[in-house]
């Protein structure tokens, strides 16, 4: 079960050298020593998971955890370049699934995401399930919440307690055009209405230290999925600090 604290996830995407990843992880580890009441997940590229885990294993705050950016739904087999959930389970606690960039560039659909969610839960990982719309519209809340419902409708209530749903309007990702906080909060509320009020729902889309509080003050937004700003330790720590004050 996920805690009641806000969940802040740093998705590094395909960024950082090994040296940069180690410095970033160490800075986050040290910076979070005095920041409580917030859960933080770092999601580096696959190749840096183990080096980052080594750093986080040294006097790491309990609220700092590790996540992967993707995984395959099969246990093993002829899937060149893929990583299975069973390979990840001893490295990470969380895994991001269904990100819009996986949909756009690798044509992953809801059925694939659904299979991945099941497999992640089977091995004890916490899935962070991404959903969103490609353009801003008055029907976004209905569209996105129905998509979230289709992906997780097969899950038991006890399983839903182990997942987070990240609302990421595709038009806001990496564009600097973040969604209005009221707009985002409405979509997140609709997701909770359809999936379950106890499910943790995050917002992601051009989040930075200047706008993060605008989202976190809303009861329907339980955390943030942060992209570019998670690569800047000082800014990401500021976001985490702001989240710790919204409890």
UniProtKB/TrEMBL annotation:
Molecular function as annotated in GO: triose-phosphate isomerase activity
Record field: catalytic activity: D-glyceraldehyde 3-phosphate = dihydroxyacetone phosphate
UniProt-annotated binding residues for substrate: 11-13, 174, 206, 227-228
Any single Gene Ontology cellular-component annotation: cytosol
Gene3D superfamilies attached to this UniProt entry: Aldolase class I (3.20.20.70)
Protein name: Triosephosphate isomerase
General function of this protein: Involved in the gluconeogenesis. Catalyzes stereospecifically the conversion of dihydroxyacetone phosphate (DHAP) to D-glyceraldehyde-3-phosphate (G3P).
The keyword Cytoplasm is annotated on this UniProt entry: yes
Native organism taxonomy: Bacteria, Candidatus Berkelbacteria
Gene name, Swiss-Prot/TrEMBL: tpiA
């Amino acid at each position: 079960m996920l805690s009641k604290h806000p969940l802040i996830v740093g998705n590094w995407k395909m960024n950082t050298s090994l040296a940069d990843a180690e410095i970033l992880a160490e800075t986050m580890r040290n910076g979070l020593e005095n920041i409580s009441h917030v859960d933080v997940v770092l999601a580096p590229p696959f190749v840096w998971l183990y080096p980052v885990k080594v750093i986080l294993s040294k006097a790491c705050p309990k609220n700092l955890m590790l996540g992967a950016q993707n995984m395959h739904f099969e246990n093993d087999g002829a899937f060149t370049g893929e990583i299975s959930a069973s390979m990840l389970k001893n490295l990470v606690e969380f895994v991001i699934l269904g990100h819009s960039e996986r949909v756009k560039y690798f044509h992953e659909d809801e059925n694939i995401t659904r299979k991945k969610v099941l497999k992640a839960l089977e091995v004890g990982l916490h899935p962070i399930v991404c959903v969103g719309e490609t353009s801003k519209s008055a029907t976004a809340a209905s569209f996105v919440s129905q998509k979230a419902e289709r992906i997780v409708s097969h899950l038991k209530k006890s399983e839903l307690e182990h997942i987070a749903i990240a609302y990421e309007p595709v038009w806001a990702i990496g564009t600097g055009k973040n969604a209005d906080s009221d707009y985002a909060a409405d979509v997140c509320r609709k997701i909770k209405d359809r999936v379950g009020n106890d499910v943790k729902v995050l917002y992601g889309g051009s989040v930075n230290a200047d706008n993060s509080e605008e989202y976190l003050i809303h009861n329907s937004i339980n955390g943030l999925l942060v992209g570019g700003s998670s690569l800047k330790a000082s800014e990401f720590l500021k976001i985490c600090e702001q989240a710790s004050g919204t409890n």
